[in-house]
Amino acid sequence: MDGAIRSPVEELNMKLFRTGFVVIALSVLVLDQVTKILVSAQLILGESVSVIPGVFHLSLVRNSGMAFGAVFLCAESLTAVGSVS
To answer: DSSP letter at 67?
Structure first.
């Protein structure tokens, strides 16, 4: 929102861009969750399945740690996360 006046075509393009971004983001989220559910239902802990031999394998592992690593968080953030969860 730079204050510039946009033509109706530019406004439509911006709306389409935003809509496309949201659709792609939601699609990735849904695909991620569906994949996790299917893998959890089909594999046992520690099992690995070759999807594309020598290139792509699916493995079922559990990570009980924090996402993105706690190294980048300060002590106050860790306290806040701990009290929320």
So the answer is: T
Would strands 48-52 and 56-59 be described as parallel, antiparallel, or unpaired?
A: antiparallel
**Residues sharing a CB contact under 8 Å with residue 46, sequence separation 6 or more, in sequence order:** 59, 60, 61
**pLDDT tens, 40-56?**
899 999 898 888 998 98
Whole-prediction pTM: 0.56
Per-residue pLDDT band at 74 (split at 50, 70, 90): low
Q: Which residues contact 60 (CB under 8 A, 6 or more apart)?
A: 39, 40, 43, 44, 45, 46, 47, 48
Alpha helices, DSSP H, located in 1-85: 8-42, 75-84
